[in-house]
């Protein structure tokens, strides 16, 4: 029974995102959603934008601010919010508001989407997720609106503040500025607020709630421990942010684009390290960075954020478990261990399968883009495109939204490939696989062992 429920829940989750994308596509294709000279967007353009918004990616084939009307921008914002929190989380909130008990499969979906803490029921998690989201976005919107009011009239500044706050917290990376946040690259207020919102959204509610519970206990003199999940997320996120910042400072210190006083280089490198983990905003032109920096960005995009958050990627905990697995084998330890705790074998297998799934789909996506964009070209003529295509594929699959500037110029088959990658990346390869083929019955026997040479 539980397996059937798990399969049906996975299919319901996939169907909810597909339905939201379809509805968004139909709405964005309406003439009222765009402004001259972009009336009547093509179906592909509407589909691409809707998918990117629901999957909180941020890749665009049209400039959002100049292409879409006010109504179109509102629809995009609603799609971002629905995709960031989770489409089914909204329906669960309505059930809770009407004092209805959540069905078992709905409670299972909440745990799949946001994680679980033993001290909170699924219904409490839904309420607190909304409170956490709205409080974060509201505070961010207030500060950003006050800053933008120095450059724009108040109504425009307020809309800019709200849009960018929601986009940042949901790790979407959509901006109403044609050059993202490059115009505010030296503005500490905008940079700090966006960074904080990205981190809050990328950590996930479960980690934030656990951290708050721990700090309240410390203030009251009560000894409490963070869960292993929270400790792994916080430690790995800190290492990735600080390590990424240091690498970007080292690699870009002689780049004219980043050649500025050390504090400017430092905070733009910090912004890159944070935004590359699925946020998608940029304060410097990505296409003008050095190749080593682009490769570092690709690695950071692959890792992504944390489970139960608005971020994508293979997830920090997945990479942490894989690193611990390699370390355990090198040390000849019987079990995988992280921070003085053993990790169950089924979780280790899931981490391996997840990372393998991402790698397989990334490779397939890169091959398709190469076929659609470089077929018939000799290697000498096409080799400069490979890194751009790899960057675009990883950005779409890991729902980041950063681009070297080739998205709009890609052929329609390539754009449809990116649409598929964004959808798979938002839901995860394993969940997509389970929804399509179901879970196999566990086999209770093992076959005879025989050795093969490895390495």
Q: Structural class of the secondary elements?
A: mainly alpha
Radius of gyration: 22 Å
CATH class of the domain at 1-114: Mainly Alpha
Distance between termini? 42 Å
Helix content: 55-70%
Shape: globular
Describe the structure.
This protein has 455 residues and is mainly alpha-helical. It contains 19 helices and two strands. A two-stranded antiparallel ribbon has the order 1-2. Helix 8 runs parallel beside helix 9 (188-203), helix 11 (228-252) packs antiparallel against helix 13 and helix 13 (291-303) packs parallel to helix 17 (386-397). The model is unreliable at 1-5 and 94-99 (pLDDT under 50).
In short:
This protein has 455 residues and is mostly helical. It has helices at residues 2-28, 43-54, 64-67, 70-85, 87-97, 104-114, 122-148, 154-169, 188-203, 205-219, 228-252, 262-275, 291-303, 316-330, 345-374, 379-382, 386-397, 412-427, 429-437; strands spanning 337-338, 341-342. Among the domains are: 1-114, Helix Hairpins (Orthogonal Bundle), CATH 1.10.287; 345-397 and 406-437, no CATH class.
């Amino acid at each position: 029974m539980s397996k059937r429920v798990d399969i049906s829940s996975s299919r319901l989750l996939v169907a909810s995102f597909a339905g939201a994308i379809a509805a968004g596509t139909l709405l964005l294709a309406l003439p009222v959603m765009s402004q001259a000279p972009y009336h009547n967007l093509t179906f592909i353009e509407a589909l691409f934008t809707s998918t990117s918004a629901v999957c909180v990616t941020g890749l665009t084939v049209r400039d959002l601010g100049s292409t879409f009307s006010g109504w179109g921008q509102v629809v995009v914002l609603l799609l971002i919010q629905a995709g960031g929190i989770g489409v089914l989380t909204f329906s669960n909130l309505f059930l809770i508001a009407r004092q209805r008990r959540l069905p078992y499969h709905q409670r299972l979906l909440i745990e799949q989407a946001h994680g679980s803490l033993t001290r909170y029921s699924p219904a409490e998690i839904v309420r607190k997720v909304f409170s956490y989201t709205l409080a974060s976005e509201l505070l961010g919107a207030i500060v950003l609106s006050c800053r933008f009011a120095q450059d724009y009239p108040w109504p425009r500044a307020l809309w800019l503040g709200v849009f960018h706050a929601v986009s940042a917290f949901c790790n979407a990376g959509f901006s109403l500025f044609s050059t993202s946040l490059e115009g505010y690259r030296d503005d500490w207020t905008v940079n700090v607020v966006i960074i904080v919102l990205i981190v809050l959204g990328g950590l996930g509610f479960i980690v934030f709630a656990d951290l708050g519970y721990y700090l309240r206990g410390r203030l009251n003199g009560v000894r409490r421990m963070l869960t292993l999940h929270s400790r792994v997320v916080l430690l790995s996120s800190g290492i990735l942010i600080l390590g990424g910042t240091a690498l970007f400072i080292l690699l870009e210190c002689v780049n004219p684009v980043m050649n500025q006083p050390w504090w400017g280089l430092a905070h733009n490198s910090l912004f890159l390290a944070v935004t590359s983990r699925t946020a998608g905003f940029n304060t410097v032109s990505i296409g003008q960075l050095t190749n080593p920096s682009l490769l570092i960005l690709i690695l950071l995009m692959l890792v992504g954020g944390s489970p139960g958050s608005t971020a994508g990627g293979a997830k920090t905990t997945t990479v942490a478990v894989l690193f611990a697995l390699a370390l355990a084998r090198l040390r000849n330890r019987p079990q995988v261990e992280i921070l003085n705790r053993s990790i169950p074998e089924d979780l280790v297998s899931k981490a391996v399968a997840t990372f393998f799934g991402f790698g397989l789909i990334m490779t397939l996506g890169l091959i398709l883009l190469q076929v659609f964009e470089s077929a018939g070209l000799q290697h000498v003529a096409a080799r400069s495109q490979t890194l751009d295509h790899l960057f675009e594929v990883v950005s779409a699959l890991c729902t980041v939204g950063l681009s070297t500037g080739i998205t709009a110029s890609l052929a329609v088959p390539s754009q449809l490939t990116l649409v598929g990658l964004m959808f798979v990346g938002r839901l995860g390869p394993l969940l997509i696989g389970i929804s399509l083929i179901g879970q196999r019955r566990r086999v209770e026997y093992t076959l005879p062992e025989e050795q093969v040479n490895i390495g």
